[in-house]
Amino acid sequence: MTKLDDADLVAREYATLDRLAMRRLDRTGWLRGDDEPWLIALRAAAEQRPNRILEVGCGTGEFAALLTAPEVVCVDASPAAVDAARSKGLTAHVGDAQGLPFPDASFDVVVANWMLYHVPDRARAIAELARVLRPGGRFVGCYNAPDHLRELWASVGVPADTGGFGAATGSEELGRAFAVVEARRAETEVLWESRERVQAYLDAYREMYGPLTAPTEPYPFRATRRNVVFVATKP
């Protein structure tokens, strides 16, 4: 299994956004439950009443397009992601989380969802996220708990916790750069109607984990989504 912060893996994986799109669980399954991490993250950003928001690792720009602020800026290391965000009318730049191209104290809120585990020097990236926030500004980020989709990963022989940044380590790592770190838990369910739908989801991880084969039964297949939304405040 390739490390998720391997630079070559990240470059290959996000040269196009096809597999990223298929890792959206709503592309292949039915989602159930009220604790949707995106909604929790959107509320956490809105609580700050921000004028300027930065999303780092914006992907296709779908989350950034939902943010409510006079100015939303996107950054991603993938040119394909930046093009996708711009196609939605967003202001987007190619950039590295380890060296953001913005002055100190430029933003009220910085968002980084499901991307810090891809950064080789995570301490430097977190310091950068804090640097571009104004004093009292807020970091918001959605990440996985160690047992996220445990039922599925156990059925195909992949450890549920693949290491890197997540619910188990995030509070401690963020705490080195932020004054207060809150972890807002989110637990919901995904249901796949058929083996073909599970296989389509697993195929989106081929670059990271190698070929995986969907379980033969039971169907519909259910798994629990266990996520956390980190909300951190800059001193």
The number of helical elements comes to 9
Binned strand content: 25-35%
Q: What coarse outline follows from CA principal-axis ratios?
A: globular
The string of secondary-structure elements, in order, is HHEHEEHEEHEHHEHHE
Q: Give the helix proportion (percent range).
A: 25-40%
Written description of the protein model:
There is one protein chain. The protein has 235 residues and is an alpha/beta fold. Helices cover 29% and strands 26% of the residues. The chain has nine helices and eight strands. The protein has helices spanning 7-13, 18-22, 37-46, 79-87, 122-131, 150-156, 170-175, 195-203, 206-209, and strands spanning 30-32, 52-56, 71-76, 91-94, 107-111, 133-144, 180-192, 221-233. Strands 1-7-8-6-5-2-3-4 form an eight-stranded mixed beta sheet, sandwiched between helices. The longest helix is centred in the first third of the chain and has 10 residues, at 37-46. It is globular, with a radius of gyration of 17 Å. The mean pLDDT is 94.
Question: What would the keywords be for this entry?
Answer:
235 residues; alpha/beta; eight-stranded mixed beta sheet; 9 helices; globular
List strands and helices in order, with pairings.
Elements: H1 7-13, H2 18-22, E1 30-32, H3 37-46, E2 52-56, E3 71-76, H4 79-87, E4 91-94, E5 107-111, H5 122-131, E6 133-144, H6 150-156, H7 170-175, E7 180-192, H8 195-203, H9 206-209, E8 221-233
Parallel strand pairs: 2-3, 2-5, 3-4, 5-6
Antiparallel strand pairs: 1-7, 6-8, 7-8
